[in-house]
């Protein structure tokens, strides 16, 4: 009931969420854990695979996750001077794409002096609860020549308890991360709180396959292929379902 109410509130303020499939299948090889154990388990999993996380993404999605994230950013339609929050984006994949969109040759060629000033005020904030994932993102930023970019800000934080002021952000994205939180309703409530009126909320996440034949293939891939790849590449079969299924009590 609480989730339904929060979603209804979000619908009146935010644009429709963007949804797609992901390499990390939240319904695959699921197992039950108590609520208080979920945060610890998810944290341990991502800490152990942080350095190989991007490689796993490429292998398990056959590179498709790149196209999905490109589309996410195109739907966001970033603009100079925006203050944007990317949650659970520790490796910087979405944040880098936003900066690339803002710094594109075509965009820069049409900017006037006013837009130049706005560009300097742009803040792309990467928020992740896992410091190891953030460290990977910072390293990647340095490799891309973005280490000194003042527009790119790294914050260790919890999606369920954001340390940002009310009505302070123009945009909020979360890609393949909402399944890993313990209380989705709290995450949505926090997104609603920190976004300005008319702010954009985009969530890139899994969907279920309904067509019987494709569902069988998809389930086989989820239950058999992904866990095997996760164990082979990262040495952690849990990554195939880092969300787990929370039980009460």
Question: Helices, strands, pairings?
Answer:
Blueprint: H1 2-13, E1 32-34, H2 35-49, H3 53-61, H4 64-76, E2 83-87, H5 93-102, H6 105-109, H7 113-121, E3 123-128, H8 131-143, E4 152-156, E5 169-175, H9 184-194, E6 195-204, H10 212-234, E7 245-247
Parallel strand pairs: 1-7, 2-3, 2-5, 3-4, 5-6
Helix pairs in contact: 1-9, 3-10, 4-5
- Sheet with the most strands, sense and barrel status: 5 strands, parallel
- In terms of DSSP E residues, the strand content is 15-25%
How does the helix and strand content classify structurally?
A: alpha/beta
N to C succession of SSEs? HEHHHEHHHEHEEHEHE
Mean pLDDT: 74
Q: How many distinct beta strands?
A: 7
Poorly predicted spans: 1-33, 236-249
- Give the number of helices: 10
Give the strand line-up of the largest sheet.
Answer: 4-3-2-5-6
**Helical fraction:** 40-55%
Shape: globular
Q: What is the end-to-end distance?
A: 19 Å
**What is the CA-based Rg, rounded?**
18 Å
């Amino acid at each position: 009931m609480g989730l339904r109410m929060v979603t209804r509130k979000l619908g009146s303020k935010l644009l429709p969420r963007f949804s797609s499939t992901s390499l990390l299948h939240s319904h695959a090889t699921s197992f039950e854990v108590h609520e208080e154990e979920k945060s610890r388990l998810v944290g341990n999993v991502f800490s152990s695979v942080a350095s190989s996380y991007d490689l796993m993404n490429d292998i398990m999605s056959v590179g498709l996750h790149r196209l999905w994230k490109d589309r996410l950013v195109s739907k966001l339609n970033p603009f100079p001077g925006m203050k944007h929050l990317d949650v659970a984006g520790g490796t910087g994949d979405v944040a880098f794409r936003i900066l690339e969109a803002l710094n594109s040759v075509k965009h820069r060629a049409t900017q006037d002096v006013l837009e130049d000033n706005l560009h300097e005020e742009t803040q792309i904030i990467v928020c992740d609860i896992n410091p190891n994932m953030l460290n990977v993102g910072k390293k990647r930023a340095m490799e891309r020549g973005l280490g000194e970019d003042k527009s790119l800000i790294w914050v260790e934080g919890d999606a369920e308890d954001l340390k940002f002021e009310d009505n302070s952000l123009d945009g909020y994205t979360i890609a393949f991360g909402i399944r890993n939180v313990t209380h989705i309703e709290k995450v949505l409530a926090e997104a609603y709180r920190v976004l300005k009126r008319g702010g954009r909320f985009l969530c890139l996440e899994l969907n279920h396959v309904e067509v019987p034949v494709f569902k069988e293939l998809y389930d086989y891939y989820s239950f058999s292929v992904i866990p095997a790849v996760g164990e082979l590449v990262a040495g952690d079969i849990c990554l195939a379902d880092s969300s787990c299924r929370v039980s009460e009590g």
